[in-house]
Design goal:
alpha+beta; Archease, Possible Chaperone, Chain: A, domain 1; 3-stranded antiparallel β-sheet; 25% helix
């Protein structure tokens, strides 16, 4: 799926799903990864108008770990609050921290489809002027 300046796709594997994300900047990459996760959690349903924004802050040791921790924080919120993220407005992004306003939609049941984002075969690389990341989602 292509969005405003970014794209993502899912590549299936036994008990895992590989997410490939591309965007021009790190904040765009994190936003696109969040959008992909929200799309997956909504299981193809169209998102209604998102609710009020909430500030989500994640810190980590480097940008690869930041991507995993960001996705896992969004998964935690989805599981505990029956909420799927759909819109992202980065406030501050560095290689070690992301602070963003995230808007989401309520979901009927706990989205236990994805257990966690993992560090297995995790990579973020520059490619053709963009950042491209691959992260394995344990399903």
């Amino acid at each position: 799926m292509k969005g405003a300046g970014g794209s993502h796709e899912f590549l299936e594997h036994v008990s895992e799903l590989r997410l490939r994300v591309r965007a021009p900047t790190l904040d765009g990459l994190l936003s696109e990864a969040g959008k992909a996760l929200g799309e997956l959690l909504l299981r193809g349903e169209h998102a209604t108008a998102p609710g009020p924004p909430r500030e989500v802050v994640v810190s980590s040791s480097d940008r690869e770990a930041l991507l995993v921790d960001w996705l896992n924080e969004l998964l935690y919120l989805a599981e505990t609050e029956r909420w799927a993220p759909v819109h992202f407005e980065p406030i501050h992004v560095s290689d070690r921290e992301v602070r963003a306003r995230v808007r989401g939609v309520p979901i009927r049941e706990t989205p236990s489809l994805v257990k966690a984002a993992t560090h297995h075969r995790l990579r973020i690389e520059h490619e053709n002027g963009d950042l491209q990341a691959e992260v394995i989602l344990d399903v």
